Amino acid sequence: MTMTTIWRVKSLSGDKLRLGLKEAADLLREGGVVAFPTETVYGLGADARSTEAVGKIFAAKGRPSDNPLIVHIADRSQLGGLVQPYSRLAAALMDRFWPGPLTIVLPVREGALSPLVTAGLATVGVRMPDHRTALQLLAQAGCPVAAPSANRSGRPSPTLAEHVLDDLEGRIDGVVDDGATGVGLESTVIELAGERLIHILRPGGITREQLLEAAPDAFIDCASSEAPEAAPRSPGMKYAHYAPKGRLELVEGNPGAVARYIRKQVTAARERGELTGVLAFEERIAAYDADRKFSLGSERELEAAAHRLYASLREMDAAGVQCIWSEVCLERGIGAALMNRMAKAAGHRIVRL
Ligand code: TXA
Ligand code: MG
């Protein structure tokens, strides 16, 4: 057991806040593991140059060691020491989207990072989070910080410090608590080929539409929410992530048919004595009957659904819900990332009516 220190940013100010963040940054610099908020989800950070420190991330999360970590920086000037010279396209995307939820996979500079960070690949994913507290902490630490989402492997990513503590209290050195994260889903991970091709390895906070607008001449290829390929380019995509404890099934089709199907399933599950849950958009939530219902907000504002999804899955777990049905949304804008995560949470169980 490790003593987990909690710094509550919202109840500190002035010198006390500076001191708190300095303590957290010192811990990082000294090889500790500290969770911190970003604009996407909470990350679990460690000095990316130190194999001993990064090893603690894998141990605390129970994460498979063939899954590389994203490196977080506070300033573009840190990049030169970490990666090899990169394309104009990469620079343009950094100009446009950093700080922000875009991770760019670049050829790593040999010896710059612990091999645990890259999981033996010749590349590293780098991003600059768009979050005041995160940027202050990273700047203060002064080192590149490797940080996966701060959940136990296989659990939904944390969007509140409470989620981090539920999963990792006693296993990590500290948590910087700055309330709810913004986007609620992880960053978009991209890899570039030459000056014209963008592979979206993981859809996320920066949408395909935004990338196209920033790089109108580029071709963009996307991972979809379909079952993953055998050898995905992004190693993390092959793991059954984000799973709630209950069995989640997604239901696609016209609203009437979806509502009828879910009602029938809920009735059958109740007859088996199971606790039921439904995730649905605000427009139709009243049409459902289940032991626990969660509104994803309006289907015209999928940002709200992204913001809430992981917390809803965790609340289903906390309530002991055994089977969950969810509506789906269009894979447009942030809807692409949302469906990607929901499909994974459902183990790709999707009923098409
Ligand atoms: O929003 C985020 O990206 C959050 C916050 C904390 O920054 N971090 C996060 O990290 O989601 P993690 O470890 O849960 O997911 C990292 C993803 C994995 O799917 C991993 O396989 C992929 O990025 N990845 C990392 N480095 C890579 C590389 N060199 N090549 C391909 N994929 C890489
Ligand atoms: Mg993760």
Give an overview in words.
With 353 residues, the chain is an alpha/beta fold. The protein contains 10 helices and 16 strands. The strands form 2 sheets. It has an 11-stranded mixed sheet, with helices on both faces. It has a 5-stranded parallel sheet with strand order 14-13-15-12-16, with helices on both faces. The longest helix is centred in the C-terminal third of the chain and has 17 residues. The protein binds threonylcarbamoyladenylate (TXA) and magnesium ion. The site of threonylcarbamoyladenylate has 28 residues, from strand 5, strand 6 and strand 10.
- Average pLDDT number: 94
Work out the radius of gyration: 20 Å
Task: Write out the strand line-up for the largest beta sheet, numbering strands in chain order.
Answer: 1-8-2-3-7-4-6-5-9-10-11
Please outline the major beta sheet: 11 strands, mixed
Q: Which segments are poorly predicted (pLDDT under 50) over 5 or more consecutive residues?
A: 225-231
Structural class: alpha/beta
- The percent range for strand residues is 15-25%
* Secondary-structure element pattern, one letter each: EHEEHEHEHEHEHEEEHEEHEEHEHE
Hetero groups: threonylcarbamoyladenylate, magnesium ion
* Proportion in helices: 25-40%
Globally, the shape reads: globular
